[in-house]
Design brief:
Six copies of one chain form a homohexamer. The first copy, chain A, has a four-stranded antiparallel sheet. In chain A, about 10% of the residues lie in helices and about 55% in strands. The longest helix of chain A has 6 residues. Chain A is globular. The first copy, chain A, has one domain: Beta Barrel (OB fold (Dihydrolipoamide Acetyltransferase, E2P)), CATH 2.40.50. Chain A is mainly β. Chains A and B meet through β2, β3, β4, β5 and β6 of A and β2, β3, β4, β5 and β6 of B. β1 of chain D pairs antiparallel with β6 of chain F, so a sheet runs across the interface.
Chain lengths: ~70, ~70, ~70, ~70, ~70, ~70
């Protein structure tokens, strides 16, 4: 499957924390950069996400804001 | 200013392409990872973004989806 | 590839209209239901979308609002 | 009320599951297509959503991604 | 029509600027507060938005970030 | 820090309700207008939000829909 979202960053799952409805997944990209994702618990289970899983963080370009100091 | 968005990734602007209303900004994080952002041209101008500008890519955790192969 | 977004609706592209930066893609689901998507023109070209292409409309559950009459 | 969101798909509520803060609502469109929505529990209660309620799934065009096989 | 989005702020259109695909609409709330919205030009035309139109700015609670100084 | 989001509305926190994962924050703008925000509980704690805190509600222009009666 290929998807229209412009950002598809390869990494591995560092940590999964399940809430009642949602799960918080921390992904480590190359270079040690971490990205936090919140998805539904049902999705996290269907994708069988656990520490070490190889994944892509998928982000639409219009969801990336830019800040300067 | 501090903001509630969970992901604030430091990088530098690699390229800015202005459209009529929107601008597409490519940000290079450490390790050579690139993230593409689309913001309004007015915002790009107000932040004076040009190649080399030090910026943060700001992304809400709920806007990060996860894909597996 | 499998993705965490809860809604992945199979359909076919009915129409693609390219703007300068974005493209508007109309997808027809079974039963004649139409969904309009706006993605970047670059994505539309990379996915080689044309009328008749078989696609999935991918939508996060938290992006679906509900209205009543 | 009329709203700027491009997708307003008529259907009926098939199932409502309440969490602590959010509710997950499954909507059945014509042709048996199902869409899952997550809204706040407070909104679900104010709209008095129960199985069988006639509703519209409201989705912005820019929140619809496209995937190909 | 009633919608699940938590924020529905009444105001009047102060200015509409049409691009090729999108329109930028500035809404003035009571107390002189201004909110900028970007919707598709087609939606702006269907809603017949012009300066002075009475409208509601509709915003999901999860799309409101918080910043501190 | 300056950010690309077009709407940055100054106000004060009126109420914070913490859930397990998310917090609901009600912000009062000038003129008595209220905006509801849902952010992660972790962000609410890091920003030390309590009733009376001076904050900005930060909203992307593309997340503002428009409704008419």
């Amino acid at each position: 499957m290929r998807i229209s979202a412009r950002n598809q960053l390869r990494g591995s799952v560092k940590r999964v924390e399940h809430g009642t409805v949602n799960s918080e997944v921390t992904i480590e990209l190359s270079g040690g950069i971490e990205i936090v994702s919140i998805i539904t618990k049902q999705s996290a289970e269907q994708l069988q996400l656990t520490a070490g899983s190889v994944v892509h963080a998928v982000i639409k370009a219009s969801d990336v804001m830019i800040a300067t100091d």
